[in-house]
Write a structure and sequence with these properties.
32% of the residues lie in helices and 24% in strands. By secondary structure, the chain is of the alpha/beta class. The protein has two domains: 23-422, 3-Layer(aba) Sandwich (Rossmann fold); 439-540, 2-Layer Sandwich (GMP Synthetase, Chain A, domain 3). The strands form five sheets. The protein has a nine-stranded mixed beta sheet, sandwiched between helices. It has a seven-stranded mixed beta sheet with strand order 7-6-4-5-8-9-19, with helices on both faces. The protein is globular and about 75 Å long.
């Protein structure tokens, strides 16, 4: 008797139709449905907008952009942390069809210059500076090498007021006329990938891409106009501007900004004071919140749901979030900038195992498959391979880079993610690592995620990252970077090995252990394993491969 072998392929439901409208049209519709409901609350400044007020201010800014010469297809940059003006500009550019270019708040002068030049940016809107970074000075320096950059506008400065005032010269229907010229398939956003190898690439996304993705993310969370979402994740990233801003506002929910950049105490204070029902974060954010000395003093009882995403989600952290933060409906979402971003998400009624040990099922209107990285053939369920996705969410391409686009998106429009995944018989997927992160030790394929999950269970370890480092005998060896819990003694390699003995295969036990105060991180809270490898080689004096 033969057993039927199922391929690692799944497609999402199409019961709820796609939103075939532009971001501006959708936002206007929400504002007309819920004019008096709160739309945006900025805790640091105390400013608050209802949907009617936000729509009014968005239109005023959109008219200002039109009067300043911005038009459909022009690139307008935004360089700022989480401030209300970021949201205003996001919707104002969407209403006139200008392509918003997200600039990472941590960029330095040469990175800014590259983004301005590569995108062909015509205007940039920025804070004068943030956290010791002189944005205005860097923009002035970059402008000398960027002749296409015609204008710089600074939030909170006279140039911002002048931009809005300039729009008063246009007729009242100017924004409506501009919106009528737009199509849901038009490009509306450029987001630069992290650039861990080579220069960053500008993932170009359409209204249809990101409007629908934000909508289905929060639809999966059961959002209504009654929800209030606390957003400590950065707006410049898909997590903030799509999953949070577009996700909330497609449902008439409120967005709460706890601070310009992540602050664990400010986040929990905002949840308590604004009676938030949902909270987003990457795992390191939830770890920081749970680790606050006065964590138990915050009233988080209004929380019901949220998302933990952006990097692998430790099972133990997920369990604590559900039990101690009242987020019984918390969801794990998985994706990448190039796919708008989410392609997999756990469901509200999934059991605890599925919500803590997988990244969920395929999103509506999408297809996913797991393939052999060498042959491209779809692998059987239960076998690891490269995760691929296809559908409305796949980017239009990398801005002005058809060669890199062709490397990532094949002729059949499948996006090849570079992530290693396993699809189970029930269609749920587990991400086991990055193809580039996979460690090959003496011919054995080792997945750091598996070892990290095991070490998270140690009572003294607050966080752990496992990487591969050069080794003359085996090609690569494992190194574990540890963050210890407050008051816990540092663990050495012998202590870690003793903990693993008999519970983890010997070849999976880290050869090296480093106890550190922090991990090298991107601004979005993702760990930079490339930097960790370089530092480990230097610290341990290992030979470069």
């Amino acid at each position: 008797m033969t057993t039927e072998v199922h391929e690692s392929y799944a497609s999402g439901t199409t019961a709820t139709p796609l939103l075939e409208e532009t971001i501006g049209a959708n936002f206007q519709r929400t504002a007309e449905l819920f004019p008096d409901r709160e739309a945006l609350i900025d805790k640091p400044s105390g400013r608050r907008w209802s949907y009617a007020e936000l729509n009014r201010d968005v239109d005023a800014l959109a008219r200002g952009l039109l009067a300043a010469g911005a038009a459909k297809g022009d690139r307008v940059g935004i360089w700022a942390p989480n401030v209300p003006e970021w949201v205003l500009l996001q919707y104002a550019t969407a209403k006139i069809g200008a392509i918003l270019v997200n600039v990472n708040p941590s960029y330095r002068a040469h990175e800014l210059t590259y983004a301005v030049q590569q995108s062909g940016m015509k205007m940039i809107v920025a804070l004068p500076g943030f956290k010791g970074s002189d944005y205005q000075g860097m923009i002035t320096a970059a402008a000398a090498n960027c002749p296409g950059l015609e204008a710089a506008v600074y939030i909170g400065a006279p140039s911002w007021d002048a931009l809005i005032a300039g729009g008063e010269t246009l007729p009242a229907d100017a924004v409506g006329h501009a919106m009528a010229q737009l199509d849901a398939g038009d490009p509306i956003n450029i987001q630069y990938t992290s650039g861990t190898t080579g220069y960053p690439k500008g993932a170009t996304l359409s209204h249809r891409n990101i409007l629908n993705n934000g909508y289905f993310v929060t639809e999966t969370l059961g959002f209504t106009e009654q929800d209030r979402l606390c957003v400590p994740v950065p707006f410049y990233h898909c997590f903030g501007m799509v999953m949070a801003n577009l996700g909330a506002m497609t449902h008439g929910a409120a967005i709460v900004i706890p601070a310009p950049a992540f602050d664990a105490a400010a986040t929990l204070r905002a949840v308590e004071e604004e009676r938030c029902t949902a909270l987003y974060g990457v795992p390191t954010m939830f770890i920081a919140e749970l680790g606050l000395p006065n964590f138990s003093e915050y009233d988080l009882s209004t929380l019901r749901t949220g998302i933990m995403a952006g990097s692998p989600c430790p099972v133990e952290v997920m369990r604590r979030t559900m039990s101690e933060m009242h987020m019984e409906g918390v969801s794990i979402a998985y994706g990448m900038t190039e796919t708008s971003p989410v392609s997999m998400q756990t469901l509200m009624d999934d059991d605890v195992a599925h919500r803590t040990e997988t990244v969920g099922r395929v999103h509506p209107h999408l297809e996913v498959k797991v393939v052999d990285p060498a042959t491209g053939e779809t692998v059987p369920r239960g076998v690891a391979g490269e995760f691929c996705t296809r559908g409305y969410s796949v980017m239009l391409g990398y801005w002005n880079d058809p060669a890199k686009t062709a490397e990532a998106v094949d002729a059949d429009r499948w996006m090849h993610t570079g992530d290693l995944a396993v699809m189970y018989d029930d269609g749920y997927v587990n991400i086991v690592g990055r193809i580039k992160d996979m460690v090959i030790r003496g011919g054995e394929n080792l997945y750091p995620r598996e070892i990290e999950e095991f070490l998270y269970q140690h009572p003294d370890i607050a966080d752990v990252q496992v990487i591969g480092v050069p080794d003359e005998r085996y090609g690569e060896e494992l190194c574990a970077w540890l963050l210890m819990k407050p008051g816990a003694a540092a663990l050495d390699q012998a202590a870690v090995a003793a903990y693993c003995e008999g519970r983890l295969s010997r070849h999976k036990i880290p050869r090296y252990v480093l106890v550190v105060d922090e991990f090298p991180m991107t601004v979005t809270g993702k760990v930079r394993k490339m930097d960790m490898r370089e530092r480990t080689v230097e610290i341990l004096g290992l030979g470069q491969r």
